[in-house]
Amino acid sequence: MAKIGYYSRKPLPLEMHKVCVVQKTEIIPVEERVKAIRKAGFNTYRMESKDIYLDMLTDSGVNAMTNEQLGAMMLGDDCYAGSKTYYRLADKIKEIFNKDYFLPIHQGRACEYMLALAYVKPNPGSIVPMNFQFGTSVGKIKYCGGDYVICLKEEGFNKQSTDPFKGDFDLEKLEGVLKANEGKIAFVRIESGTNLIGGQPISLDNMLAVSELCKKYGVYSVLDASLLQDNLHFIKTRENKYKALSIREIVRKLSDAMDIIYFSARKLGFGRGGAIILNDEKQYEYIKTFVASFEGFPTFGGMSVKEMEAIRVGLDDTMDEDIISQGPQFIEYLANELEAAGIPVVTPPGGLGCHIDAMKFIPQIKHGHYPAGSLASAIYIASGARGMERGAIDEPWDSETEDEPYGSMELVRLAVPRRVYTVSQINYLVDRLCWLRDNKDLIGGLHFETKGPHQFYDALTADSDWPEKLAAKFREDFGDSL
Ligand SMILES: Cc1ncc(COP(=O)(O)O)c(C=O)c1O
Q: Which one of 28, 199, 223, 404 is CB 3.0 to 4.6 Å from 352, fit for a cystine?
């Protein structure tokens, strides 16, 4: 990996690409930003892209493509069955993962649906142990009548930590779950890296140990490799034991240990799609029946051939250390700058984005008034950047429960789409967050107009006119700056 030292200044992450296509963006005035977030019901999912300067909602399907990916899209062989594109992508997958069978599927959550349809059964409900839950994964497991058990090691729940692999399984807990539920385990889901605890990686050692336990108890190991490219960077840079291995060698070792791998190619492969890959022909034929019924003919599985060609090239990029280090380096830079400015972030910095701890940033906003939602709205007002609420608004609410479930975390995720934003844009964001830190007492809470279960994309209302007051202070401090 390119490690670049500096002579006259402290190191900055250095882009290992040159920009060949750009998209114009705009910053609307702060007063307009207040109107836009009000119109969106203080929920950043409901915002219109035209009102956003830095779109840091997600890293999914929004990563910049290379000129080679864009060129490859023109090779797409649009053909219902047996297209050349399918075989080219199948060859690339075999080359990288060394697995014989590949099912194209239109995105990650659809892969999860296919696997749940195949293996999760009701009465008695199947159990899926996992290092941590992800909404789309557990949704399908529950829909099919099963349930999940989180087996994350204790340190993973610690928001401020120096542990390099907070996504690791607690192996003892996992073994206990496997023992207690013999005959009921659908599969063990290994999320690499772990999205909802801040893009935290899982070590190769831990994944290999999980695969051994799966073998011991005769259950499938299923790797969710959606965030694998960041995780590979962390294995290479944080796990001494495997430093000498190339990225391709690490992938091979991991892949050889897993029964089934699936991924969202909206992240892995810098495209928009997904895949399930495996070695067992019988299981491949079985899962294929669901793909054919729900996704599309199994040589395209609901994906456009253009995207499949882009993913083929993007998977090669995923094996390039310079390329996969870009995201984590930008996130580390952003997190370190914020931490140095006294802004509470999840540490160590992980992949996919920088996460701000809302309960610490604005302690005056209590549960029931949505600290992370309030902070995400305030960040948008201060900067034009759209982050994602990762707290009570996002938390699934069982319709049988009367009391609102409050998760253990109230975070604002500032995702860093790969190769999209520059260091100067990150520096702009840090500046606006420092201003917000100094004006945090002006931030107020939010509420839903109606009581009872809500969805993560529902609208909220501000508890007072705090957004207008925050904007007025911004105008006072920044004069005619946007
Ligand atoms: C770890 C993980 N698994 C699965 C998914 C679902 O993928 P998709 O958005 O392509 O449906 C995501 C998406 O964010 C993810 O981060």
A: 199
- pTM comes to 0.95
Would the pLDDT of 320 be above 60? yes
Nearest CA to ligand 1 atom 10: 108
Residue 436's domain comprises 30-59+323-478
Spatial distance between the Cα atoms of 255 and 251, rounded to a whole number of angstroms: 6
Does the pLDDT at position 2 exceed 90? no
Measuring from atom 4 of ligand 1, which residue has the nearest CA? 108
pLDDT single digits (tens) 244-272: 999 999 999 999 999 999 999 999 999 99
* Ligand 1 atom index nearest CA of 136: 6
Q: Helix, strand, coil % (nearest 5) of the chain?
A: 45, 10, 45
Instruction: Report how far residue 104's alpha carbon sits from residue 113's, in angstroms, rounded to the nearest whole number.
Output: 13
CATH classification of the domain holding 112: 3.40.640.10
In a domain, 161, yes or no: yes
Residue where the block lists tokens 């107009």? 449
Residue 104 pLDDT > 70: yes
Which of 294, 320, 346 is at the close of a domain? 320
Number of domain units in the chain: 2
Ligand 1 site, CB within 6 A: 60, 107-109, 134, 136, 191, 195, 224, 226-227, 264, 266, 274
From ligand 1's centre to the CA of 254, what distance in Å? 20
Helix (H) or strand (E) holding 224: strand 221-224
Alpha carbon of 191 to ligand 1 centroid (Å): 10
